[in-house]
Structure formats: structure tokens, C-alpha cells
């Protein structure tokens, strides 16, 4: 009988020790309030509201503020206590942090999981990711506009200085009646004649400035600059492109369905636009590259009926052979081939000679 009682007491003692170990294990050094219970530090319970927690924190903070204590030892104790109170308040005032802390108290055995949840929240970005994305896209859009506008002005400044384009712009201005003269300005208003010394030179300078402004305006209005130096358009801005993505998707679906219906199902003949598209597709050219081609080249493609794959393949092979033949006769290309046959550029190796 005594043996059974002794065994029962031993089991009860072991269970009690394990329970105490689990309870101690619930508080992890370096997490939250360390080996202290954040609720006990603030003198509250798990059912306490956020308002009551705030009131308790303010009362304890006033009591343990280091400036209110005299002496080095008392100030050191107050500093440690004040820091622990502040840490407990930081843990319990935030709903997510408090929820993680309660989970740790209820599940002390999930040791590594508690570390993961704690440091994930501590080192997570404090700023809303959506705000970061919006600000980034806005900055890129602003940079796009100003960079495009700067390149466009640079191109206009260059064309204004080229005599060929200045003469053409002047002829256009004369034909349209907007060229400034001694008696009229570029906007058609009569010029007021001024008398007195120095007015003649002043009039010449004023006339020269108006002529330059008129040439610039004609070039901006009449010259079609494409590519990287083209005139800025709101459609090229990233924000606008993102908003137009659904429109582009709908347009593509409509275009693709129309193509299948007209040319695959109904077997209608291809139009000129569709023929150009197929040729451009076979040549792997973008729409901009296609628009930069000489009209005579495009006419040649149409005469060769290159929108038909069976006609395009031999035509492309022929062009490739012509290019290789020209390169074979090019002295610079010959020198390059001899250079490559001799080993090309030197290489650095770590092999012993």
C-alpha cells in the first residue's frame, strides 16, 4: 500500500514539475517582456481593455520615471523598471502584438514559432506597402515626363540651329503669314515705331528674338519627331499605361476574335493593314520600327507578297545570303575574321603553362 502511495506521489510531483517548466518556458528571453509577464508588469489582466491598459501605463510611468528618483542606485532601479513598463505597454497596446503574446502564453511549447512571429512583426516594414507602390509609380511617372520633355526640347534646340530646317521653317512661316517683320509681329499685330537713338538696334534684337521664336514654333508644330526624342504624350506615362491595361486587353481580345472570324472562319481576303501586320510579324519588327521603314521598301514587300509565309522564307534566305556576300567582301569584316581565327581577345586563365 505504501509503495502505491509513494508511486502516486512521485507521479504527481513529476507532473507538477513539468507544469512549472512549461509555465517558465512560456517566457522567452529577448521576446516581449523577457522572463516577466507583461500583464503583471502593468498590473492588469488578459481581459483588461486598451483604455485601462493605457491608464495603468501612465500611472506606472509617472511613478517609475528615472527623473523622479534620487541617488544612483535608485535611479538605476527606476530606469530598469521604467524600460520594462514601456516595453510591456508597447506589447499590449497593439492588437496584433497582444494577440501574438497571448498565443505564446497559451502555447509555450511552440518555441521556434514564437521567435518567428515576434521577429517577423518587429522587422516588417512599418509603412503600408500600398503607399510605397503608389509613391514609387508616381515618382517613375514624374521622371518619365520630365525626361521625355527634356529630350524633346533638346531635339528642338538642335533643329533650330540647323540651317536646312531654319530655311524650311521660314518658308512655311512666310506662306502662313506669321513671319515677323519690321512693321508687324509674329502674331499679326502692328509694330509700334519708336523714335530716338538706340531704338534701331533695339528693334533688330527684338526682331531676331521673334524670328527665332517663330522658327521654333513652326518646327514644333510641323516636324514629326519620333523615337526617344518624340513629343511627350500622357499615354507614355506609367500611371496612364497601368490604367489603360484593361482597355488594351479588351482591344486585343476583340482584334484576335475579329481576325479568327474574318480570315480563319469566313476566309475573307486580307486587307492592306493585315498584310503589313503579317510582314512585320515575320520580320520581328515593332510597330515603331515598321513606321520608320522607307515606303519604297514596303512597296517591294507588297509586290513580293511577303505576307505569305511560303514567299517570305525564300526571300529572307536570299537577303541573308546577300548580306553574307557583302560582308565577305568587306575589308573590315575580313580583318575581324582573321583576328578571331587567331584566337580573338586574350583570356585570363588560372591554368599552369
From TrEMBL:
Segments forming domain J: 37-105
Endpoints of the signal sequence: 1-26
Keyword tags: Chaperone, Membrane, Signal, Transmembrane, Transmembrane helix
Topology within the bilayer: Multi-pass membrane protein
Pfam families in the record: DnaJ (PF00226)
Record localization: Membrane
PROSITE patterns, sorted: DNAJ_1, DNAJ_2
Main location: membrane
One record GO biological process: protein folding
TM spans (from-to): 127-146, 237-257
GO cellular component entries: endoplasmic reticulum membrane
Family: Belongs to the DNAJC25 family.
Name this polypeptide is given: DnaJ homolog subfamily C member 25 homolog
